[in-house]
Amino acid sequence: MGDVQDQAPHDRRPQRDVRGAPDRRGARGKLIALAGLLRDHYDAVEADFQRFYGVDLGGLWRGELSLRRVSALVTNLPPESATWAAENGEALGASRADVLLADIFQAVTGQPHPLRPQPKDRAAVEQHESTAARLRAQRARVAAQRPKEAS
Question: CA quadruple 98, 100, 103, 105: dihedral positive or negative?
Answer without folding.
Answer: negative
